Amino acid sequence: MIFYTGQNQFPPFYHLEKLMNGILGIILHRSFWAVMILGYFFISGTTCTAQSLPFLPDELTQILESGLPKTLPSPVETGHFKKLPAGDGFVWLAESTATLKKGHKLAFSKTFDTPLKEDEVGFVAVRCRIVDVDNNANEPRPGRVLIHIGDRETLRQTALYHKGTIGREWGWYFHPFRAAKSVATGTGKIRLSFDLQPQRIEIEDVRLYVAPSGFDMSRLPMMEAGYQGREPDAPWRKEAEARINEHRTSPLIVRVLDVDGHAIPQADVRIRMHRHAFGFGSTFQVRLVDDISPDAIRYRQTFEDLFHALVPVPALIPQHTPHAKDGNYANQLLSDLTNTLKWAYDRQLPMRGHTLVWGNLQPWSNAFVAAGEPEKILSSIRAHEQYVLHKTKDFIHEWDAINHPIRFQKDLRDVFGSSIYSKLFTEQRMMTSARLIINEALFDNTREDKFFAFMKTFQEQASSRADGIGFQSHFSINNLRGMEDLWRRYERFAPLVDRLVVTEYDFVCNDDELHADYLRDVLTLSFSHPKMTGFINWGFWAGYHWKPEGTLIRKDWTERPAVKIWQELVHEKWATNTDLQTDTKGEVETKAFFGDYEITVSVNGTSTTQMWTHVADNGPLVVEL
Asked: pLDDT tens digits, residue range 389-437?
């Protein structure tokens, strides 16, 4: 989500600074966000060029009156607007002289009457430029603008909350989006705020389009984007390959002997990887485990073809378990969860659990606070933990113990004090032997700093340390992290724990090539870190995903190029499958990736097959024939 400009380029590591406002909703097959949380990011290493408003499909309808409002807004404590002549018309100059600790006042709005339904597609476009920015930086900095779409009265019925950056040449910014909430007929408003920093911005036009229900957002254009480290010869690639070779492989030796213990030369040895030790996985929608529809059957088969690990959703999320529901829905959910656990177990798919505690306050926990009954939050959490840990004890051996400990607006610490997470975590240790992970979304540098400070204190003060840290890793073109920056983050947190996990990867992007390239690079970089143990896609099929534009496979089962990337890396490059013959010592040796193998040895028409788990420090597999 970038305002693209003319010839100016900004410094190569201009980091994301995204405001979070609202409560991130439960991650289901649809977006249940109370507020869609978006941000801004200037793409490093990308030449910015002025953009013309691109062709839009005929189905889109422009719902704003053309031009700027007729009345210039009054001056406020953070700045003022000026009307400037420009050709046959005029532009507005927004001159911000100060900022507020909370909220924004230097803004203008336009209203619209057309309804905007939740999850329907919209397209916003603004023509503007930055004149100058008053800051203490030694290099040019981009301008900043906040776009808020919602109801006219309060803007709390938020369809879009988005912060973008703009450059110094005139150009169009455009951004397709899905409405986070519905805006009723005759109640809509779009508000642009400019007092995010001292700056002067010129604005010429604002447009808002809506698409009909069911419109495929992938048909809409997105701004050109990139990220540091995308180049084929980027230095980090050789370093990552060296780490993968060092930390993910070791010699696999098979020794073939006869019944008298003599070596058998020239025996045929067939080595096939059955399951990777690293958790290359995805969420699995439990509702589809027994469904006999063509889509559900294809869903299960595709999962088996692509993934080595599974996270059942949403049936293990607080307030979404069978235990928390009633009637036929609860019975069906219980059946689906039970059968998903068995389905994965039968296929030897390791599973992660999501989640025991949701730290950021949710609607249900906020309701208890509002009613003056906060202790019911803790009793609900404990009942949830007891239920899911008992239900999954033979299947799930790693849990997101605390999800979102860092507040968006409020978290459990605001209700129960700073020690609540340590207290709950200590209780969890008494309830399960599973590995316990602290899972957080690090949208920006400020949130990363808060989470680092939290984890450092938590690991020092808690009676029991967390086993690992989960990086949620939800990306869109507005918050792409370069490879150097991601590696810096991994290295920063690694000393605090024994293991790291990418827990919720997706990338909302209509550019198939960029979508595939970023998966290739994030997956490679993550796999190369010695403490990383898994990489979980937060869904893979657009037919059952909270952000359909972030999936590997479209709703009609068209595979995006990222699927080929996944297959080439996970199932080919990082999988050992080879046929060899024993030497005079009766041995074969090959460098192999860690995991479970099916090894078949054949001599003079006689064969035997054994399963073998290849780890760093095991000796040879001895096969007698």
From this structure: 999 999 999 999 999 999 888 999 999 999 999 999 999 999 999 999 9
- What the block records as the tokens of 151 is 């109801």
Structure tokens at 168: 């110094």
3-state secondary structure of 574: coil
Chain Cα centroid distance, residue 546? 11
Q: What is the DSSP letter of 119?
A: T
Distances (CA, A) of 95 to 10, 106, 130, 440, 490: 21, 8, 10, 37, 40
Measured between alpha carbons, how far is 106 from 97 in angstroms, rounded to an integer? Answer: 10
The yes-or-no verdict on residue 167 having pLDDT over 90 is no
Kindly state the tokens that stand for 381: 């959490």
The Cα 364–Cα 19 span in angstroms is 24
Q: Are strands 199-210 and 89-96 parallel, antiparallel or unpaired?
A: antiparallel
Q: Please report which confidence band the pLDDT of residue 27 belongs to, taking 50, 70 and 90 as the band edges.
A: very low
Q: How far apart are CA 71 and CA 464, in angstroms?
A: 61
Cα–Cα distance, 601 to 499 (Å, whole number): 36
**30 to each of 73, 324, 426, 547, 611, how far by Cα in Å?**
38, 20, 33, 7, 40
Residue 254 · residue 558 · CB < 8 Å? no
Q: β-strand 199-210 against 61-62: which pairing, if any? A: antiparallel
The DSSP element (H or E) to which 450 belongs, if any, is helix 445-461
Please tell me which residue, 462 or 264, carries the higher pLDDT value. Answer: 264
> Nearest-CA neighbor of 601 among 617, 612, 591?
612
- Helix residue spans in 9-120 (DSSP H): none
Q: For position 144, what pLDDT does the model report?
A: 86
Amino acid (1-letter code) at residue 455? M
The stretch 591-604 carries a mean pLDDT of: 97
Residue 73's alpha-carbon distances to 44, 83, 175, 267, in angstroms, are 35, 10, 26, 85
For the stretch 89-113, pLDDT in tens is 889 999 999 999 888 999 999 999 9
Predicted confidence at residue 220, as pLDDT, reads 85
* CA–CA gap between residue 240 and residue 246 (Å, rounded): 10
d(CA 25, CA 47): 36
Both tokens of 80, joined, read 């003022």
Tokens 């912060």 correspond to what residue?
163
Distance CA 278, CA 274 (A): 12
- For residue 103, give every residue at least 6 positions away whose Cβ sits within 8 Å of its Cβ, in sequence order, or none: none
Please, are residues 451 and 440 in contact by the beta-carbon 8 Å criterion?
yes
Decide: 191 and 47 in contact? Cβ < 8 Å: no
SS3 assignment for 371-416: CCCCHHHHHHHHHHHHHHHHHHCCCEEEEEEEECCCCCCCEHHHHH
